[in-house]
Design brief:
Elements: E1 56-63, E2 68-75, E3 79-86, H1 87-104
Antiparallel strand pairs: 1-2, 2-3
Length: about 100
């Protein structure tokens, strides 16, 4: 899905805050001094202080023949999760965000 040669867009699958222990998942990335805007929070887990190596890993995103976007990833390489979106919904949401951004500049 990250294939820029075929007119597709780069996607950010993870975000980090300056102090993850104090991060509020409802905060937009903009309020954390970043030009990125949080569209959705897929999980609200962080690495524990006893095991800072816990992580989300192996993200894979694809577009199926029905026009749905599939995201698959693991937590701490132990638990797998998949999420399915309608590509039309994502496109309309991204267009809405772009128009909001254009108005604010």
């Amino acid at each position: 899905f990250n294939d820029l040669e075929h007119g597709r867009h780069r996607l950010v699958l993870a975000a980090a805050w300056p102090n993850p222990a104090k991060a509020d998942s409802s905060q937009s990335a903009k309020s954390n001094y970043s030009p990125w805007k949080t569209i959705a929070v897929l999980e609200d887990e962080t690495a524990s202080t006893t095991n800072p190596k816990e992580e989300f890993s192996y993200p894979y995103m694809s577009l199926n023949q029905q026009g749905q976007v599939l995201l698959v990833y693991t937590w701490n390489r132990k638990r797998m999760k998949s999420i399915l979106w309608d590509a039309g919904y994502l496109q309309s949401y991204l267009q809405h965000i772009k128009s909001e951004t254009d108005r604010s500049q």
